Structure prediction request, 227 residues.
Amino acid sequence: DTQMTQSPSSLSASVGDRVTVTCRASQGISNYLAWYQQKSGKVPKLLIYGASTLQSGVPSRFSGSGSGTDFTLTISSLQPEDVATYYCQKYNSAPFTFGPGTKVDIK
Amino acid sequence: EVQLLESGGGLVQPGGSLRLSCAASGFTFSSYAMSWVRLAPGKGLEWVSGIGASGRNTYNADSVKGRFTISRDNRRDTLYLQMNSLTADDTAVYYCAREGGWNRFYFDYWGQGILVTVSS
Prediction:
């Protein structure tokens, strides 16, 4: 099975900073990669699918890139409401594995 | 408005069984694949089981193979998860989630989640 890893596991940044989270697949998954945001005690929210397509209603400061095995989620200007754990997920074939998550908070 | 409402969670002893249900509304349930995803205390999201729109194709994580069975009733717009031989490692909030369409197993709508606690 394809394993998903994320780095860093956590980060702390200032409001307005550019933040990048990396996701790596152990085998190529083309662009079958989604990103989710989960705030504490809340339901996960889809941010990006197809590695780079922004889900409707998601602020444009979020963007995704990558293909094959290496992917990134970028927040262009970190806002206080972006404090959350971010997960990548592969969906090219079962099992539809999530990455371990990256916790983002404000410095 | 898409709504997914889980039920059937609670406290169960190790080795016991539980059946979760997810009632769907606001979309054509029979046109979408569905999945169960869980969040254990202090852990990350874990995809558990998925089922195609017709119910013919099912998929399971290795951690639940042989113990959990996903099914659906398209006449009742309801998704199920039968969980047997439960262990403490199955303690989690379980979410019902709808796939993004055309059997693309990313998840655009989620239920509020239901807590399952396995403990003696």
